[in-house]
From TrEMBL:
Cofactor(s) listed: [4Fe-4S] cluster
Summary of the function given for this chain in its UniProt record: Adenine glycosylase active on G-A mispairs. MutY also corrects error-prone DNA synthesis past GO lesions which are due to the oxidatively damaged form of guanine: 7,8-dihydro-8-oxoguanine (8-oxo-dGTP).
Protein name: Adenine DNA glycosylase
Record key words, sorted: 4Fe-4S, DNA damage, DNA repair, Glycosidase, Hydrolase, Iron, Iron-sulfur, Metal-binding
Biological processes per GO annotation: base-excision repair; mismatch repair
The family this protein is said to belong to: Belongs to the Nth/MutY family.
NCBIfam families, per the entry: mutY
Domain HhH-GPD: 35-186
Amino acid sequence: MIFSNKLITWYLENKRFLPWRETKNPYAIWLSEIILQQTRVAQGLPYFEAFLNTYPTVTDLANAPEDDVMRLWQGLGYYSRARNLHATAKKVAYELNGNFPTNYKDLLTLKGVGEYTAAAIASIAYDEVVPVVDGNVFRVLSRVYGITSDISANSTKKEFQELAATLIPAEAPATFNQAIMDFGATQCTPKSPDCSVCPYINDCVAYATNQVSTLPIKLAKVKVKKRYLDFLIILDANGNTIIEQRTEKDIWQQLYQFPLIDSFKHNAEDINDYVKEKFDSLYIKEVLTLTNEAITHQLSHQKLHIKFWGVRVDNIPTDSTAWAELNKFGFPIVIHNFIKSLDLKTLIY
């Protein structure tokens, strides 16, 4: 138990104050874990507080319109998490009488809840002795124990789960899991950790063999696809515009956007022709280039190159949206930021 004792001692002296650690409420713990998937704590904390204030119970979240949930999630990225969050809230509220499953196995049946999230909820909310295994755990254990297995291989995850299961103390699973998460996030960091103050300095194989910068080993590389997007901000003289919802299974599903050409057309004449073809009832007065250089936006598997065009028109469909009402819709953060930065006076007379 030397490993766990050192870890918990370190944690009790160095742990971060995080609101979801002050409760055994599975709803709050689940909410925090879903938000923190692919998200740093500093970024996720205000979203956690906003969701908990807006939807104090899982039933409140279940009853919320999906557009409202997506708008509150705006800026966190990986929007499938928000859709899964809403779907799971409905299942818990309507099918499980508002009660979350009370064990690891049953938690895995919830949409968006994988092995790591189920282990975190089960151990923290219900004190089930099941270890969490994520990037932080891979890093800590691979360094301390000198494990050189490729963490991108499926078999390696089982190897780490089995090791972690021998380390987690039966009397303090919640503390152990939160401790190893914090230790990996703040002490045994991916780059340039301060090993001089590490409690494992005399035990760490990576430190002893000068492998801290190379462990854990990850051989598989994510292939990043380049994508080129033209967004058309169509506006009449009264500040009305056209938006549409992304409904296909793609990035930003269920969020809103301006009409899109999914490849650069490069010049105003091409944009003019496209708008005439797609919106044949519109009378175009002028096409404006709003971004001389493409805005780059990095996703996990895609690198987006985005341009915005302004299209002044004399008339607009009756189902258009007033510019002042755009804050009622959830947009991808790159579009949301562009809307905030745009001076509407440059587009309307």
